Amino acid sequence: MHQYHQKFGKIFKMNLGTFKSVQIGDPTLLESIFRKESNYPRRLEIKPWKMYRDYRNEAYGLLTQEGQAWQTMRKAVQRNLMDPKEVAKLDLKMNEVMQDFVTRINNICHEKGCVDDLYFELNKWSYETICFILYNRRCGLLQEACGEDDLKFIKSVKEMMKYLGPLMVTSVNLHRKLNTPQWQKHTQAWDDIFTTAKRFIHERLENISKSQKGDILSKISEQGQLSKKELSAIFSELQIGGIETTANALMWAIFNLSQNYNAQEKLYEEIQNTLLPGDLPTSQSLKQMPYLRSCLKESMRLTPTVPFTSRTMEEDTNVGGFLLPQGTIVMINFHAITWNEDFYTDAKKFKPERWLQDKHTLNPFASTPFGIGRRMCVGRRLAELQLQLALCWQLLKSTLL
Ligand code: HEM
């Protein structure tokens, strides 16, 4: 998409199969869309997901729901997931999982310092963390003998995502009518995802009165605003949302640091100057690590985890001098925006310092890895804390063990 934008400019039309869209790759256009946002912003409909829910008589979650019903869900979840004070308290749980992760990596590391499938190990780390936070549940995925069900969940998410793309750009109605292999595999993957998520929810709700609370499910279910069916839909999506994204973002952060020795050294120095020997990083101590936060911001700018988001125009809207009719799908391409030399000098270089030095001159719409406005990622604060702690552990792991 970055290359297309270089060829066709900051805004252009694109038809891909039955899918018609307008592509934007410029922060000023993103800002103009944000300024016109309504109370219920809409993204591109994920029709295959909706069709699965209708087919199995399941509810929609935050990623799939629209309008007022979305807003009610969002408020219930946001209160617990986006409140900085509430999220800060999750550092203990995140550190507990991180300790297991570091031990596991040390155990499975070959002599030359290689891990066979680091990305899958990171998937296990992110899954273990999100389940602990959502349900107070330790799944044991970082132990030698781990549960098949949990591994299956991660694999089912990958399988479901594999078929999502092709189903999005062709007629999903037709796939369903003809019961194509793509539709069958997508359905099977969702069946597996829902089975596991429902079991976790059920087991947690059954035990709520007996064990310690503090998990997101207990807090939300106590508010009593959402039905069990809605909880299943929302929590399946939160469980999915917390796996690939954080794992991918950490993988890129490790990669970017590995290519930039000076940044690594500077970061190590900052961590050493902030933490006393033997201390674990906490939400509080991270506040004293501006360079660490800049490394993460820079990594998410240079190598965004989610390549795009979208908005469906709710009314005829002027964007960059073009009138986009109501219903137009606008795709917001993060790479094209964040690699734009007009907004970042040396845009393709990893330079964490830019977030410290040029802070006031940087356009806030020129790097939005978690999206924008009311529909911004609801797991943002959680992910940021998790990634900041993880980076800290990565640099310290040899001294902590
Ligand atoms: C939405 C990115 C982690 C759950 C989004 C969006 C982006 C995004 C770009 C679309 C926002 C928009 O349209 O403006 C990321 C990145 C992550 C991350 C880069 C980590 C590095 C998480 C986590 C969770 C999560 C940990 C679950 C706890 C969601 C949900 C939505 C969403 C439910 C839909 C929100 C709504 O429509 O109301 N995310 N995300 N994400 N994300 Fe994340």
Automatic annotation (TrEMBL):
One of its GO terms (molecular function) is heme binding. Pfam families: p450 (PF00067). GO terms for cellular component: mitochondrial inner membrane. GO terms for biological process: C21-steroid hormone biosynthetic process; cellular response to peptide hormone stimulus; cholesterol metabolic process; cortisol metabolic process; glucocorticoid biosynthetic process; vitamin D metabolic process. Gene3D superfamilies: Cytochrome P450. Heme binds at residue 377. InterPro entries: CYP11_CYP27_families, Cyt_P450, Cyt_P450_CS, Cyt_P450_E_grp-I, Cyt_P450_sf. Its cofactor is heme. Keywords: Heme, Iron, Metal-binding, Monooxygenase, Oxidoreductase. Signal peptide: none annotated. Belongs to the cytochrome P450 family. This is 1,25-dihydroxyvitamin D(3) 24-hydroxylase, mitochondrial-like. The lineage of its organism: Eukaryota, Metazoa, Chordata, Craniata, Vertebrata.
